[in-house]
Design brief:
This protein has 148 residues and is α/β, with parallel strands linked by helices. It has helices at 39-51, 99-115; strands spanning 2-15, 18-23, 26-32, 55-56, 62-64, 72-77, 120-122, 130-144.
């Protein structure tokens, strides 16, 4: 499982000219699953996202979590995080989890974040989404369950 975490001042997702999710201060998460991911990876990365301390404290140090700053999350499904570009110029997505299971895991991931007390806005799984955000910092962190 991979997540690209972007600290934002605001972020939104539009599908078919309608806003499906919108936040102010918080994280915009691009979330991808590989074929052999399990619920264990979801639990691990939920804990990591919730505990990540990348918001500035009163001294300007990145020392506060999303809960500390009362931030929200915009979670976007992103199968292209598992693009394989080793052979040629056209990416292969054979390592990405299949559609139905990935949709289920995306829902579970978002629900676990909500169960942890966070407000989670969402994109539309599998849709052509237009994402707008103001990356604050910029701060962008890549979390990969294989590296934790």
């Amino acid at each position: 499982m991979r997540i690209v975490v972007q600290r934002t001042k605001y972020a939104s997702c539009v599908v078919d000219n309608k806003i499906t999710g919108k936040i102010d201060l918080g994280y915009m998460l691009l979330v991808g699953f590989k074929e052999d991911d399990t619920i264990d990876e979801i639990n691990l990365l939920v804990k990591k996202v919730v505990g990540l301390r990348v918001f500035s404290d009163n001294e300007g140090k990145m020392n506060l979590s999303i809960k500390d700053v009362k931030g929200d999350i915009l979670a976007i499904s992103q199968f292209t995080l598992y693009a394989d570009c080793k052979h040629g110029n056209r990416p292969s997505f054979t390592n990405a989890m299949k559609y139905d299971k990935a949709n289920e895991y995306y829902s579970i991931f978002c629900k676990k974040l909500e169960d942890d007390g966070l407000k989670v806005e969402k994109g539309v799984f599998g849709a052509d989404m237009k994402i707008e955000l103001l990356n604050d910092g910029p701060v962008t962190i890549i979390l990969d369950s294989e590296e934790l």
